Amino acid sequence: MFTHRRIERHQLPCFLQVFNRVTDKPIGFLGNASESGLMLISQLPMMVDVDFELRLKIPGPTGECQAIDLTATCLWSHEDINPQHYDSGFSVIEAGEEYSQLISALLNYFSFDPLQASA
Predict the structure, then answer these.
(1) How many CB atoms lie under 10 A from the CB of residue 46?
(2) pTM here?
(3) Is the residue at 4 inside a domain?
(4) Is residue 8 over pLDDT 50?
(5) What is the CATH classification number for the domain harbouring 19?
(6) Residue 98: C-alpha distances to residues 8, 82, 95 (Å)
(7) Is residue 1, in this structure, part of any structural domain at all?
(8) Alpha-carbon span 80 to 46, nearest angstrom
(9) pLDDT at 105
(10) SS3 call for 44
(11) What's the number of domains the chain is made of?
(12) Does residue 3 fall inside a structural domain?
């Protein structure tokens, strides 16, 4: 028995865009995230060993946008398998409780129910 995805793949970039907190300009999309780090997918490589002020804008249930701010250091950046895209790994230096709540929500949202998956 197959368990269906809760979200279509093409919807992910709409919800997981990452912005430069200082300029409020988009810099890429969240590739993956944990409490201690994240991967950014962008069209330009990121500077390594530099601290970035990042902002995630998460849409709320009634259309309002919640900003989640964090400071992270870029540890590595290399070309993605897709042409003209780069993957960059960041270590989170400082983030509020909202970031921890986002990680928990993402883990819950993209996890399969263990009872259904064991069939």
Answers:
(1) 19
(2) 0.77
(3) no
(4) no
(5) 2.40.10
(6) 24, 31, 8
(7) no
(8) 12
(9) 81
(10) coil
(11) 1
(12) no
